Amino acid sequence: MERIVVVGAGLAGGRVCQELRAAGYTEALTLVGSENHLPYDRPPLSKAVLAGRTDDTTLPLDLGGVELLLGRRASGLRPGVVETDGGPLDFDGLVIATGADPVRLPGDGPQRVLRTIDDARALRDVLRPGLRLAVVGAGWIGAEVATSAAAAGAQVTVVEAAATPLAQALGEDVGSHLIDWYARAGVTLRLGTSVDAVRPDGLDLAGGDHVVADEVVVGVGVRPSTGWLAGSGLEIDRGVVVDEHLAATWPVPVVCVGDSAAWWSRRYATRLRVEHWDCAQQSPAVAAAALLGADAVYDPVPYFWSEQFGRMVQFAGLRPAGATPVWRGDPTQPKGWSAGWFDGDDRLAAVLAVGRPADVVRGRRLMAAGGTVDPDRFADLATPLA
Ligand SMILES: Cc1cc2nc3c(=O)[nH]c(=O)nc-3n(C[C@H](O)[C@H](O)[C@H](O)COP(=O)(O)OP(=O)(O)OC[C@H]3O[C@@H](n4cnc5c(N)ncnc54)[C@H](O)[C@@H]3O)c2cc1C
Q1: What is the H or E stretch that residue 323 is in?
Q2: Same structural domain, 226 and 201
């Protein structure tokens, strides 16, 4: 291979350049990114950046010898050529690392999203005591924005369509224990409430109610950034469809990493797309190997963390639909607790840990090994998961 082009200069794109070099690839390597920034880390945007503790999250990657085309957007793809707004780029190996774009809501009012460092700096600059801030979505991003905004003295209202925060990710059993976190932080939480439209003075709610706000932040999820691949012949199904090596079926070698990849998981015998840092960090090593002809497989137990209302929240695994959680510790108490989900044969399928990092680390190891755990012993805090 003499010219590899990586499209998308986020964590996954930057890391894949590093991994290609580490794997011995010395030929031409081009990294194309639509943002005018070197690859940077996004998790701190809704935490340390909003809180004013840092302003720069550039990743410590060695991109020496990589041709950087920043502020340049890919607009189309055909075998051997990426079309960009600065002209075509030839390649004989391609990495797709275009991540995901936030979903926006209808309406004629201004709405902020939080995806880029520019979004984060702009939001931080308007946070002030007394600001009436409406946040749509009590998911991961909504909770983190509410945390920082409340700490800055803003009057925060979070509007959530589901019956509890994080109902889709964690289920209502767990979500019901998070409701109190909002109240304790002085945040108004309106559950079971859908937003019809964003207006210049706030939110129109389904049913005719209105939330007055000076600023609106929408945190209702993301969609993979794959629009530029339309007509390329690549299979797109909520992400770029790739196999367990992260390779697509196409006339020229193509791999996909990070938030935009919908890969085949051998472990779960299903296609997964995971919009979490760990995937963007770890999948590039496998994709680089696959592009260079080695036989690596990407098959993690998914992992994610969030920091909300002063708590460290970590999750690993895949929650089986309909399973009820087994508590490890008391979720009504402020001290740490965990929840575990099991599938048949006492196999641990997922762990949520609030302020108990060891549970998630050890639980993830157990899941990776396919180990069985007696749910009664899981529930016993005196029994270490190790
Ligand atoms: C505010 C925030 C907080 C988060 N917090 C956490 C957390 O606490 N824990 C956790 O596990 N995960 C967290 N995440 C998720 C994590 O950051 C993402 O999973 C990760 O950034 C994905 O990396 P990526 O490189 O795949 O995509 P991205 O980081 O989205 O990078 C993709 C890049 O490609 C560029 N691009 C898109 N289309 C084109 C195109 N056509 N041409 C050229 N360039 C293009 C984009 O501009 C972007 O720079 C958070 C995300 C956000 C936004």
Answers
A1: none
A2: no
Dist. CA 281 → ligand 1 center (Å):
11
My answer on whether 54 and 116 are in the same domain is no
Q: Which residues of 68-98 are buried (b: 16+ CB within 10 A; e: fewer)?
A: bbeebbbeebeeeebbbeeeebebebbbbbb
Distance between alpha carbon 200 and the CA centroid of its chain, in Å? 29
- Residue 39 CA, ligand 1 centroid: distance in Å: 10
The total domain count for the chain is: 3
- What is the CATH number for 361? 3.30.390.30
Out of 189, 218, 247, pick the residue that ends a domain.
218
What distance in Å separates the CA atoms of residue 319 and residue 276, rounded to the nearest whole number? 16
pLDDT by residue (tens digit) across 335-356?
899 999 999 889 999 999 999 9
Atom of ligand 1 nearest to the CA of 261: 26
User: CA angle, corner 181, sides to 175 and 186, nearest 5?
Assistant: 135
- Give the pLDDT confidence of 232-284 residue by residue, as tens digits: 999 999 999 999 999 999 999 999 999 999 999 999 999 999 999 999 999 99
* Domain around 346: 310-379
